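ok so dumb question maybe but i'm new to this and my supervisor (M.) told me to 'just get the structure for histidine kinase' and walked off. so i did the thing. is this what she meant?? sequence i used:
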Amino acid sequence: MNSSSHNKVNIRHLLLSILTGLVFGVFVWYVWRLDYAEAEQDRRDIAVAQSRLITERFIQRADDEIERLRNFKRRIETHDDNPDLLWEFETDLILAQSLSVPFIQWISPDLTVLRSYGDPDYLSLEQLDPSANDQRRAGLRQSQQDSLLSVSGSYSFRGDGDESQDEKFFIIDIPVYRNETYIGSLAAGLDFDMLFDAVMQQRETYSVKLRDEDGNLFYSYGEHSQEEQNGDLAHKQQLDLYNGRGGFWYSTIVADREELRAEIFANLKLNLVLGFMFSALVGAALYFILGFYSAKRSYGISNRKLRAVIRSSPLAIYTVNKKGIVTDFWNSAAENMFGFRTREVTDQYLPDITKESAVEFQQMIHSVLGGEDFYMEESTRTRKDGTEFDVRVFATPTKKSGGDKGEVLVMVENITLQKETERELQNEKQVSDTILKGQPGLFYLIDEKRHLVRWNKNVNDFFGLTDAELNEMNFLELFIEEERLKVLEAIQNANNTGELEVETVVRSGGELYDFYFNGTLMTIGQRRFIVGNGVNITERNRTRDELQRSLDEKEVLLSEIHHRVKNNLAIIANLIDIQLINIDDETMTEILRETQNRIFSIAGVHEMLYDVKNFSQISFKEYLRKLFRRIFDLYEDKHHLTSYDLRVKVEYLNINQAIPLGLLLTEFITNSFKHGFDRNHAGLITIEITGGSDLIHVVYKDNGKGFETDIFENSSSMGMILSRSLLKQLSAEYSVNGENGFEISFSFTTRMRGAHSTLN
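this is what came out, is it supposed to look like this??
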């Protein structure tokens, strides 16, 4: 019985829903027909507007092609260098880019075709030859006479007399002047079929006819069979396509009524479908609304599921009435959080149990029952054992099932652990802030956008800026404008290398300061930061500059001293030259010459030191070449057959050892000339100097007469005494061989400071 009754009720609901849907469907059809009529009128207006747009696009495309040729004409007028290259380049470019220019010609003032480029099929037409076509000749003459661009048209491409198959094209003549003198005409063909077909793409609902000033049809697009039936959709317009001599073109554009109607239906079809769907939804909604009451029976099941969710929630959940009495729920999370069982709190005033503020509690209830959700970020509650803990509270209004009294659903989250973590973080922040305050220099932390994130108090004090001002600033604004690019490059480099290092300039209190900034790239989560420090190096740089200036002054002074010493030694040598004029004694002359050699040996070192920047080292190889050349010049008369072989592998030597070594070699060479070689003897002096940064090895030998080694050790002559003294000054270890000439080899260690000179 109950089952049969239930089925009848469902059938009645279904029939009522279907009837309601049909009524709505009829209404939708009526409204849609009104929209269709309005849309049809709109499409007529759109068709006329679209026709105007098509005409404007024709004008624009044609004018663009003509302007392209005008630009070519201007380049001919202004460029008279290498016309062949200009014509080859420009015509190739125009013919490649243009859809409507099949050929280009250059016609001389006497109407001779000098140049032709483009489609051979067009260029072979007799119509293009001014000498063979009266129409072409007249057009060119008129264009030259008026000094204006002219368009002659229209010509047939096939020329077979069948108008339906002819390719119509125009010829444009542009007179060209250079220095106000006519030099010829630029002629080009204009075939607009492809150009205008491109305009008509995706406009298949329109048919087009274009006629020239004589009424000749030169362009057609689409079907024209329904032109009479669709007269209200036709648009006729006169076209003025160019500035110059010529007539007008006329366009007729007609829209296809059936295509427009199909388009309207396609656009409104969705509305009709949606309307019918809405009607069906209304019927279905009515059916489901009627079935709502049967679904209400499942409420009890849903309520039990909700309670299961509340019981398993990690938040403490309970409900209180407007008096603050606990009425429902008090889930297991609340029991664990507060330590009270459900029976201990039910029908109890909650502040008496949780020790929370009664005033705040009543304010919460009043606010929630007033229709507002309540949220308290932080508060404190007390457990049954008397311990306190931190909580976050959220409350929302509800109604008790089956009653009309307002109740409040309260959810409490234990945030004690979170608060402890926050306090630890705050303590760590205080420690880090204390460290930053004691940090020397300008500490900074910037993000990817170069905004300051953290800084120490030194930054505020140095720049005189508040925290609020620094918080709004970009890091680059701390530097003078001329230095910002350098600092930006250093930051970008740090993003790649992980390290920032730059010396730059900042401004503070109207004064400029040199600073050294360093930093390190670090990543926190997905964000990248640069943390670093800035150190004021103004005083360091000032001291460095002062030291550099002092060093430069001393180098100049030392260079001048060497120059003056060299000059004084040169004066002494010149005085000896003067003295030699009045001396006839050969022995005395030889002694003075030897003295001159020694003076030149010392002066040569000072001369080289005058021109170098490093006074601790001289180019010893160059020094020896000059010294030996000087000595050999002195003995050129007696020993012109003597030569020397200089093998110096040591490039530089310090002054403390260069002077004694130079004097020593001077003594050896002088001794070879005086005692080792006879006149006209082909003598050979070989000097080999090798070594490195620690030890220098020297070998001197000649192919002269030679002598006993005891003579070198015991001789009391000035030359031998000086040689032994110089070897001692160099702290050299040596060995002498007097067979088959004179040979001495010795070695000494390199050092910056040499021993004092002595003849003992």
